[in-house]
Amino acid sequence: MLSFTPDIDVEKDLVRLQGRLIEAWSSILALSENELAYLHRQALVSTIGASTRIENAVLTDEEIDWVDTTLSQDSRTTSFEAQKGFIVDKLSKDRQRSIEEVAGCREVLTTIYQQAAELFPFTETHLRGFHHDLLRYYPQASRYAGAYKTTINKVVSCNHDTGHRLTVLNPADPGLITITAMADLMDWYAASIRESVWPLLVAIEFVFRFLAIHPFQDGNGRLGRGLFLLALLQSDDKYLCQTVPYLAIDRQIEKNKALYYKVLHQASKGEFCQDPKQYHYNSLARFFIRIMENGLQDIDVYRIRYANLQKLSGSASIILDCFKSSPEKLLKVSEIESQTSLPRRTIQYNLKALKDMEFLQRLGSGAGSRYQLIF
Predict the structure, then answer these.
(1) Which of 15, 68, 134, 313 has its CA 20 to 30 A from that of 217?
(2) pLDDT for 60-80, tens place per residue?
(3) Dist. CA 166–CA 120, nearest whole Å
(4) What angle do CA 237, 239, 242 make, to 5 degrees?
(5) Which long-range contacts (CB under 8 A, 24 or more apart) does 329-333 make?
(6) Are 371 and 355 in contact (CB under 8 A)?
């Protein structure tokens, strides 16, 4: 069970969140399969983008949407290797590490969304498999992918404006301490996630203790946020687990990155504790509850975008496809004209409509205006 007792404020926040989850679940029940698939994909792409950018990857959601579309055309596990050259050339070679991270993160998250139920009870073998898949497209990680760390690692946050560096977490030492702590954590999680009154709090404690241990040499942050999703999906709270696939939780964490690192530091004062009851979880719980509430608001945003997509004319859809095929580009009217052979007046009319619906943004004015995709 939980290693801490939630304070009164956290309990009130949990009750409020539960009410909002029930409302969201009720609205989701009425949606078509096509709309649900659209909402889930929006959440998936946003989550991949945010989770990798939190770790300083550089791909935008528009570029990740394009990478996901490209890889989705071939569901085999070899699809990334087959398409890697094409993707790297398209998005430029200086982004290769980010592309590799996106491909690995996408693979792990897809497995979590599709197989969460089958992966219970969740074991260290599953965990190591996730880590291997997370890093499988990054050749330099081949020697340590799927294996616990052998050297000391730290989580350091740097303010690039002031140069101030903060040790967010000074994790467990490699070797026996990490091995023992992970065995204890996995046993605790399996016994707790479906027994607690508040499975969200179990998920929060699970992920924090994982991050405090930092068992792998690389990829702990991305994997930890994936484990948070897994825990929510494996809970026996139907309102929680059936709503989570439509929430871009990491997008909200990315928007509050400084606070995220701050509460991680506050929970442990930056030091690993062998006794998990020594951590301070309540501020962390309040942070994640707020993140979940903000994520629920995104569902309405995605629904509006889906409704707007259904309203697009054939010409507008053709123009939008031009941007989706080149997410890294800013296009002029003349460039769209050459790609589509549509009349200039038709292009200008539909660009305005796409801008008003917030599918595109306009940069510049007059003849030099360019347009870019908004995700």
Answers:
(1) 68
(2) 676 678 777 777 766 554 566
(3) 36
(4) 95
(5) 329/372, 330/363, 330/370, 330/371, 330/372, 331/370, 331/371, 331/372, 332/368, 332/369, 332/370, 332/371, 333/369
(6) yes
pTM: 0.86
Among 154-168, 216-230, 254-268, which is the least confidently predicted range? 154-168
Length of the chain: 375
Q: Which domains are delineated in the chain?
A: 8-308 (1.10.3290.10), 312-373 (1.10.10.10)
d(CA 177, CA 47): 32
User: How many Å is the Cα radius of gyration of the chain?
Assistant: 22
Q: What is the pLDDT of residue 89?
A: 56
Which amino acid is located at 24 in the chain? A
Measured distance CA(269)–CA(272) in Å, rounded: 9
Distance CA 45, CA 63 (A): 10
Closest CA relative to residue 297, chosen from 113, 21, 37 = 21
Residue 15's CB: how many other CB atoms inside 10 A?
10
